[in-house]
Amino acid sequence: MATQTIQTTTGSASPDELGRTLIHEHVLVGFPGWDLDAKAPRFKRDEVMARAMDRMQELLDLGVATFVDPCPMDLGRDVEFLAELSQKSGMRIICTTGAYMEAEGITHTFRHLPVEEITEIYLEEITRGVGDTGIKAGAVKIATGSRIVSEYEKKLVTAGARAAKETGVPIISHTQDASCGHDQIDLVTGEGVPAGRLVVGHSDGTEDHWYQRSLAERGAFVGFDRFGISIFVSDEVRIRNVLRLAEAGHTERILLSHDSIVCWLGRPVPFASCYEDMLEMLPDWHPTLIFRKVIPQLLEGGLGKDDIEMILVDNPRRLISGAAGAEDLA
Ligand SMILES: [Zn+2]
After folding, report:
1. How many Å apart are CA 152 and CA 154, to the nearest integer?
2. What is the pTM of this model?
Protein backbone atom coordinates (compact mmCIF):
# COMPACT_ATOMS: atom_id res chain seq x y z
CA MET A 1 0.00 0.00 0.00
CA ALA A 2 1.23 3.49 -0.80
CA THR A 3 2.29 5.60 2.15
CA GLN A 4 0.03 8.58 2.69
CA THR A 5 2.38 10.57 4.85
CA ILE A 6 6.13 10.85 4.61
CA GLN A 7 8.33 11.43 7.64
CA THR A 8 10.80 14.29 7.34
CA THR A 9 13.17 15.64 9.98
CA THR A 10 10.65 18.41 10.72
CA GLY A 11 7.45 16.39 10.69
CA SER A 12 5.26 14.70 8.15
CA ALA A 13 4.61 15.67 4.54
CA SER A 14 2.32 14.45 1.81
CA PRO A 15 3.81 12.86 -1.33
CA ASP A 16 2.65 15.77 -3.50
CA GLU A 17 4.59 18.24 -1.40
CA LEU A 18 7.97 16.66 -2.13
CA GLY A 19 8.57 18.42 -5.45
CA ARG A 20 12.03 18.32 -7.00
CA THR A 21 13.95 15.81 -4.93
CA LEU A 22 17.60 14.85 -4.62
CA ILE A 23 17.47 11.27 -3.42
CA HIS A 24 21.05 10.75 -2.26
CA GLU A 25 23.03 13.67 -0.81
CA HIS A 26 24.68 14.21 2.55
CA VAL A 27 25.21 16.99 5.03
CA LEU A 28 27.55 15.24 7.49
CA VAL A 29 29.45 12.00 6.96
CA GLY A 30 32.27 10.51 9.04
CA PHE A 31 33.62 7.01 9.37
CA PRO A 32 33.16 5.40 12.79
CA GLY A 33 35.83 6.77 15.12
CA TRP A 34 36.25 10.02 13.22
CA ASP A 35 35.85 11.92 16.48
CA LEU A 36 38.78 10.01 18.02
CA ASP A 37 41.22 11.31 15.40
CA ALA A 38 43.01 14.13 17.21
CA LYS A 39 44.96 14.91 14.03
CA ALA A 40 41.83 15.58 11.98
CA PRO A 41 40.35 19.05 11.47
CA ARG A 42 37.95 19.93 14.31
CA PHE A 43 34.22 19.92 13.66
CA LYS A 44 33.05 23.53 14.00
CA ARG A 45 29.29 23.26 14.19
CA ASP A 46 28.40 26.89 13.52
CA GLU A 47 30.69 27.13 10.51
CA VAL A 48 29.36 23.91 9.06
CA MET A 49 25.77 25.02 9.66
CA ALA A 50 26.47 28.26 7.78
CA ARG A 51 28.02 26.33 4.89
CA ALA A 52 25.10 23.90 4.84
CA MET A 53 22.65 26.83 4.83
CA ASP A 54 24.40 28.29 1.76
CA ARG A 55 24.24 24.90 0.04
CA MET A 56 20.52 24.52 0.77
CA GLN A 57 19.83 28.03 -0.52
CA GLU A 58 21.64 27.26 -3.80
CA LEU A 59 19.47 24.17 -4.21
CA LEU A 60 16.25 25.95 -3.26
CA ASP A 61 17.09 28.56 -5.92
CA LEU A 62 17.23 25.70 -8.45
CA GLY A 63 13.79 24.52 -7.42
CA VAL A 64 14.88 21.61 -5.22
CA ALA A 65 12.33 21.17 -2.44
CA THR A 66 13.38 17.88 -0.83
CA PHE A 67 16.85 16.67 0.15
CA VAL A 68 17.22 13.04 1.19
CA ASP A 69 20.28 12.37 3.36
CA PRO A 70 20.60 8.58 3.61
CA CYS A 71 23.50 8.74 6.06
CA PRO A 72 23.76 5.37 7.79
CA MET A 73 23.27 5.53 11.56
CA ASP A 74 26.95 4.62 12.11
CA LEU A 75 28.51 7.18 9.74
CA GLY A 76 28.21 10.34 11.75
CA ARG A 77 24.45 10.71 11.32
CA ASP A 78 23.18 13.75 13.26
CA VAL A 79 19.42 14.09 12.85
CA GLU A 80 19.22 17.15 15.11
CA PHE A 81 21.68 18.96 12.88
CA LEU A 82 19.54 18.02 9.87
CA ALA A 83 16.32 19.14 11.56
CA GLU A 84 17.83 22.49 12.53
CA LEU A 85 19.15 22.96 9.00
CA SER A 86 15.74 22.12 7.59
CA GLN A 87 13.95 24.55 9.91
CA LYS A 88 16.35 27.41 9.21
CA SER A 89 16.70 26.89 5.45
CA GLY A 90 13.20 25.79 4.46
CA MET A 91 14.58 22.72 2.66
CA ARG A 92 12.61 19.57 3.42
CA ILE A 93 15.14 16.97 4.64
CA ILE A 94 14.54 13.24 5.08
CA CYS A 95 16.89 11.09 7.20
CA THR A 96 17.27 7.32 7.38
CA THR A 97 17.71 4.46 9.79
CA GLY A 98 19.95 1.49 9.00
CA ALA A 99 23.64 0.69 9.36
CA TYR A 100 26.48 0.67 6.82
CA MET A 101 28.31 -2.19 5.10
CA GLU A 102 30.53 -4.42 7.18
CA ALA A 103 33.92 -3.19 5.98
CA GLU A 104 33.43 0.43 6.93
CA GLY A 105 30.64 0.53 9.50
CA ILE A 106 30.31 -0.27 13.19
CA THR A 107 30.07 -4.00 12.99
CA HIS A 108 30.55 -5.02 16.58
CA THR A 109 27.24 -4.09 18.18
CA PHE A 110 25.02 -5.34 15.40
CA ARG A 111 27.14 -8.42 14.79
CA HIS A 112 25.91 -9.83 18.08
CA LEU A 113 22.28 -8.85 17.78
CA PRO A 114 19.78 -11.16 16.08
CA VAL A 115 17.93 -9.90 13.02
CA GLU A 116 14.73 -9.53 15.05
CA GLU A 117 16.31 -7.02 17.41
CA ILE A 118 17.91 -5.02 14.61
CA THR A 119 14.51 -4.89 12.91
CA GLU A 120 13.02 -3.53 16.15
CA ILE A 121 15.74 -0.89 16.38
CA TYR A 122 15.00 0.26 12.84
CA LEU A 123 11.26 0.25 13.53
CA GLU A 124 11.80 2.32 16.66
CA GLU A 125 13.63 4.97 14.63
CA ILE A 126 10.91 5.04 11.98
CA THR A 127 7.90 5.08 14.26
CA ARG A 128 9.10 6.80 17.46
CA GLY A 129 12.22 8.63 16.41
CA VAL A 130 16.00 8.53 16.70
CA GLY A 131 17.12 8.40 20.35
CA ASP A 132 15.08 10.90 22.36
CA THR A 133 14.86 13.47 19.57
CA GLY A 134 11.43 12.49 18.29
CA ILE A 135 12.88 12.92 14.79
CA LYS A 136 11.68 10.01 12.69
CA ALA A 137 13.57 8.25 9.91
CA GLY A 138 11.68 8.48 6.61
CA ALA A 139 13.55 5.69 4.85
CA VAL A 140 15.80 2.68 5.49
CA LYS A 141 19.43 2.60 4.39
CA ILE A 142 20.91 -0.74 3.42
CA ALA A 143 24.47 -1.39 2.30
CA THR A 144 26.50 -4.20 0.79
CA GLY A 145 30.21 -4.58 0.05
CA SER A 146 32.07 -5.32 -3.14
CA ARG A 147 30.96 -8.41 -5.12
CA ILE A 148 30.02 -10.49 -2.07
CA VAL A 149 27.27 -9.85 0.48
CA SER A 150 28.58 -10.89 3.90
CA GLU A 151 26.43 -12.71 6.46
CA TYR A 152 26.42 -9.52 8.54
CA GLU A 153 25.17 -7.51 5.59
CA LYS A 154 22.51 -10.09 4.76
CA LYS A 155 21.24 -9.79 8.33
CA LEU A 156 21.09 -5.99 8.18
CA VAL A 157 19.48 -5.89 4.74
CA THR A 158 16.89 -8.40 5.96
CA ALA A 159 16.17 -6.26 9.04
CA GLY A 160 15.87 -3.19 6.81
CA ALA A 161 13.47 -4.94 4.45
CA ARG A 162 11.31 -6.16 7.36
CA ALA A 163 11.15 -2.65 8.83
CA ALA A 164 10.27 -1.24 5.41
CA LYS A 165 7.59 -3.86 4.93
CA GLU A 166 5.96 -3.07 8.24
CA THR A 167 6.04 0.72 7.86
CA GLY A 168 5.90 1.32 4.10
CA VAL A 169 9.05 3.47 4.03
CA PRO A 170 11.37 3.21 1.00
CA ILE A 171 14.80 1.58 0.97
CA ILE A 172 17.85 3.48 -0.24
CA SER A 173 20.93 1.38 -0.78
CA HIS A 174 24.67 1.66 -0.97
CA THR A 175 26.44 -0.71 -3.32
CA GLN A 176 30.18 -1.00 -3.69
CA ASP A 177 31.77 -1.10 -7.16
CA ALA A 178 28.32 -1.29 -8.77
CA SER A 179 27.91 -4.88 -7.65
CA CYS A 180 25.38 -6.94 -5.66
CA GLY A 181 22.37 -4.92 -6.79
CA HIS A 182 20.59 -8.16 -7.65
CA ASP A 183 21.45 -9.64 -4.26
CA GLN A 184 19.81 -6.60 -2.68
CA ILE A 185 16.68 -7.06 -4.81
CA ASP A 186 16.61 -10.78 -3.94
CA LEU A 187 16.84 -10.11 -0.21
CA VAL A 188 14.33 -7.25 -0.21
CA THR A 189 11.72 -8.96 -2.37
CA GLY A 190 12.32 -12.19 -0.44
CA GLU A 191 10.93 -10.35 2.60
CA GLY A 192 7.85 -9.33 0.62
CA VAL A 193 8.87 -5.78 -0.24
CA PRO A 194 8.27 -4.93 -3.92
CA ALA A 195 11.42 -4.00 -5.87
CA GLY A 196 9.81 -0.63 -6.66
CA ARG A 197 10.33 0.41 -3.05
CA LEU A 198 14.13 0.09 -3.44
CA VAL A 199 16.65 2.32 -5.15
CA VAL A 200 19.85 0.42 -5.86
CA GLY A 201 22.29 3.16 -5.06
CA HIS A 202 25.55 3.93 -6.84
CA SER A 203 24.57 1.78 -9.82
CA ASP A 204 26.22 4.41 -12.03
CA GLY A 205 29.73 3.33 -11.02
CA THR A 206 30.11 1.12 -14.08
CA GLU A 207 30.09 1.41 -17.85
CA ASP A 208 27.81 -1.63 -17.96
CA HIS A 209 24.40 -0.58 -19.30
CA TRP A 210 23.13 -4.14 -19.02
CA TYR A 211 23.72 -4.26 -15.27
CA GLN A 212 21.65 -1.10 -14.86
CA ARG A 213 19.00 -2.30 -17.27
CA SER A 214 18.62 -5.63 -15.53
CA LEU A 215 17.93 -3.84 -12.23
CA ALA A 216 15.26 -1.68 -13.87
CA GLU A 217 13.73 -4.71 -15.56
CA ARG A 218 13.19 -6.22 -12.13
CA GLY A 219 11.36 -3.07 -11.07
CA ALA A 220 13.99 -1.45 -8.84
CA PHE A 221 14.99 2.18 -9.17
CA VAL A 222 18.48 2.67 -10.57
CA GLY A 223 20.56 5.25 -8.74
CA PHE A 224 22.70 7.41 -11.01
CA ASP A 225 23.61 9.15 -7.82
CA ARG A 226 27.30 9.96 -7.96
CA PHE A 227 27.42 12.67 -10.59
CA GLY A 228 30.64 14.62 -10.21
CA ILE A 229 32.62 11.75 -8.69
CA SER A 230 34.87 11.08 -11.65
CA ILE A 231 37.14 8.55 -9.92
CA PHE A 232 34.74 5.67 -10.63
CA VAL A 233 33.39 6.58 -14.06
CA SER A 234 33.18 9.88 -15.92
CA ASP A 235 29.97 11.88 -16.08
CA GLU A 236 29.99 11.34 -19.85
CA VAL A 237 29.58 7.62 -19.20
CA ARG A 238 26.81 8.30 -16.66
CA ILE A 239 24.94 10.54 -19.10
CA ARG A 240 25.29 8.03 -21.92
CA ASN A 241 23.94 5.28 -19.69
CA VAL A 242 21.01 7.37 -18.46
CA LEU A 243 20.07 7.99 -22.09
CA ARG A 244 20.41 4.31 -22.97
CA LEU A 245 18.22 3.29 -20.06
CA ALA A 246 15.62 5.85 -21.07
CA GLU A 247 15.74 4.64 -24.69
CA ALA A 248 15.15 1.12 -23.41
CA GLY A 249 11.89 2.33 -21.86
CA HIS A 250 12.97 2.67 -18.23
CA THR A 251 12.83 6.43 -17.66
CA GLU A 252 10.45 5.80 -14.78
CA ARG A 253 13.16 3.91 -12.87
CA ILE A 254 15.93 6.53 -13.15
CA LEU A 255 17.01 8.67 -10.19
CA LEU A 256 19.75 11.32 -10.32
CA SER A 257 21.86 12.60 -7.44
CA HIS A 258 25.49 13.36 -6.46
CA ASP A 259 26.24 11.65 -3.10
CA SER A 260 27.67 15.05 -2.18
CA ILE A 261 28.75 15.91 1.34
CA VAL A 262 28.68 19.34 2.96
CA CYS A 263 31.16 18.40 5.69
CA TRP A 264 33.26 15.29 5.96
CA LEU A 265 33.86 14.61 9.62
CA GLY A 266 37.44 13.69 10.41
CA ARG A 267 39.68 12.66 7.54
CA PRO A 268 37.83 11.15 4.59
CA VAL A 269 39.74 8.46 2.71
CA PRO A 270 43.32 7.28 2.41
CA PHE A 271 43.99 9.28 -0.73
CA ALA A 272 42.94 12.62 0.74
CA SER A 273 44.37 14.04 3.96
CA CYS A 274 41.38 16.33 4.38
CA TYR A 275 38.07 17.00 2.69
CA GLU A 276 39.37 20.11 0.92
CA ASP A 277 42.01 17.96 -0.84
CA MET A 278 39.28 15.64 -1.99
CA LEU A 279 37.20 18.48 -3.37
CA GLU A 280 40.24 19.71 -5.28
CA MET A 281 40.51 16.30 -6.91
CA LEU A 282 36.80 16.33 -7.78
CA PRO A 283 36.06 19.89 -8.92
CA ASP A 284 32.63 19.02 -10.39
CA TRP A 285 31.39 17.26 -7.27
CA HIS A 286 28.68 19.66 -6.12
CA PRO A 287 24.93 19.07 -5.71
CA THR A 288 24.03 21.70 -8.29
CA LEU A 289 25.89 19.86 -11.07
CA ILE A 290 22.81 17.99 -12.34
CA PHE A 291 20.99 21.25 -12.92
CA ARG A 292 23.91 23.15 -14.40
CA LYS A 293 25.49 20.50 -16.63
CA VAL A 294 23.73 17.15 -16.67
CA ILE A 295 20.16 18.10 -17.54
CA PRO A 296 21.17 20.28 -20.50
CA GLN A 297 23.13 17.31 -21.88
CA LEU A 298 20.23 14.92 -21.31
CA LEU A 299 17.96 17.30 -23.22
CA GLU A 300 20.52 17.50 -26.03
CA GLY A 301 20.70 13.71 -26.00
CA GLY A 302 17.01 13.39 -26.74
CA LEU A 303 15.14 13.45 -23.43
CA GLY A 304 12.14 15.76 -23.25
CA LYS A 305 11.28 18.23 -20.52
CA ASP A 306 8.57 15.85 -19.34
CA ASP A 307 11.18 13.09 -18.96
CA ILE A 308 13.29 15.40 -16.79
CA GLU A 309 10.22 16.25 -14.72
CA MET A 310 9.54 12.54 -14.30
CA ILE A 311 13.12 11.87 -13.17
CA LEU A 312 13.35 14.80 -10.74
CA VAL A 313 9.82 14.89 -9.33
CA ASP A 314 7.64 11.87 -10.15
CA ASN A 315 10.20 9.11 -9.66
CA PRO A 316 11.35 10.20 -6.18
CA ARG A 317 7.71 10.68 -5.18
CA ARG A 318 6.75 7.23 -6.49
CA LEU A 319 9.68 5.65 -4.62
CA ILE A 320 9.19 7.51 -1.35
CA SER A 321 5.40 7.23 -1.25
CA GLY A 322 5.44 3.56 -2.14
CA ALA A 323 3.36 4.18 -5.26
CA ALA A 324 5.91 2.42 -7.51
CA GLY A 325 5.91 -0.65 -5.26
CA ALA A 326 2.11 -0.67 -5.21
CA GLU A 327 2.13 -0.85 -9.03
CA ASP A 328 4.29 -3.97 -8.78
CA LEU A 329 1.72 -5.64 -6.58
CA ALA A 330 -1.26 -4.58 -8.71
ZN1 LIG B 1 25.95 8.22 0.27
Report:
1. 5
2. 0.96
More confident residue, 129 or 269: 129
- Give 70 Cα–ligand 1 centroid separation in angstroms: 6
CA of 190 to the centre of ligand 1 (A): 25
Q: How far is the CA of 139 from the centre of ligand 1 (A)?
A: 13
**CB neighbours of 300 closer than 8 A, spacing ≥ 6?**
none
235-255 burial: b if 16+ Cβ within 10 Å, else e: bebbbbbbbebbeeebbbbbb
**Distance from Cα 143 to the centre of ligand 1, integer Å:** 10
Kindly report, residue by residue over 124-155, the tens digit of the pLDDT.
Answer: 999 999 999 999 999 999 999 999 999 999 99
- Ligand 1 centroid to Cα of residue 330, in Å, is 31
Q: How far is the CA of 137 from the centre of ligand 1 (A)?
A: 16
